[in-house]
Amino acid sequence: MKIAVFGIGYVGLSNAVLLAQQNTVVAVDVSAERVALINARKSPIEEEALAHWLAERNLNLSATTNAEAACKDANFIVVATPTDYDPQTNFFDTSTVEGVMRLAVETNPSATIVVKSTVPVGFVRRMREELGTDNLFFCPEFLREGQALHDSLHPSRIVVGADTDAARTFAQLLRDGALEADIPTLFTGSDEAESIKLFANTYLAMRVAFFNELDSYALSAGMNARQIIEGVGLDPRIGTHYNNPSFGYGGYCLPKDTKQLLANFSDVPQNLMRAVVQANKTRKDFIAAQVIAMKPDTVGIHRLAMKAGSDNFRQSSVQGVIRDIRDAGLRVVIFEPLLDKKKFMNCEVITDLEAFKKASDLIVANRNSPDLSDVADKVFTRDIFGSS
What we know:
Elements: E1 2-6, H1 10-19, E2 24-28, H2 32-39, H3 48-56, E3 61-64, H4 67-71, E4 76-79, E5 85-86, E6 91-92, H5 95-107, E7 112-115, H6 123-131, E8 136-138, H7 148-153, E9 158-160, H8 165-177, E10 185-187, H9 190-221, H10 225-233, H11 254-264, H12 272-293, E11 298-302, H13 317-327, E12 331-335, E13 343-344, E14 347-350, H14 353-359, E15 362-364, E16 379-380
């Protein structure tokens, strides 16, 4: 099979690597720098497994900026371009996805288009009508930043928003590339597949919000949050997973997916979806208030990324905390070695760890790090269990 994958982000690259084990895969991106890195067998994304597989595995993978050439003769055209949430329209900006789909239909109408980008409910149905083809479907991803390739190789499930020969063939390609056997596979309608993605991520956001609010309560009342969380989690219906407090849910997926699902509920009575979105801002404001109340002269922010092993700063929860602290008049410095600039959010960026420690009276860390063990008395974190 020849497969073109548009977008060399977490989703696109992990899928390209997975599929290139047994197929000819061409990855397409507007960034010539990313394309060059892939062709040099280097990962443009900070993820250890992706870097290892690109460097060490025999993959039939190339990359290009030539979209038309990549589409020609492809059996499947996988679209994994960004769909950022647009607060003006209350919907995902699907323009890049639509552009690839139109190009695919024009240059290779016999190819099957597989949408991996997260889209609003009803998107595929609308695009089938606009493009005059049924030869496209949505196949959602359930990946963690920093663990994208692992989650592709060990998928919890495969969901395909169609039940056609092409849909079943593509599902089999994913199973063939995975390292797991007997992967639960579900063939659904297009709207249902799109809903599965949004509801799954909103549930995860709701769980994050729940344990964060539990932690806020414990912190306000001077109680041991860890003991409460452990006791609650011992109920098998709740479990002891995904329960580590943070400064809020963030990253690329959860903030935008929860807002998109809320927008899809515009004509449906609901309370919970809105509460999940609002709870995240409340938590960030609460964390900032705790920091401000300590009255430090200089607040140090240790790393901007949401998770260890990730280089993604997009909508990281700590940015909301920074904004509140900065607006309260406190001096804020940021340690982020991946930032190639002297200022971020009008705050000084320090790339030398030791200089950062000396400059900070209080160090705020969404996730604790062994790098801070020598200044543990300065660290404010809600990372109770030390997990990502």
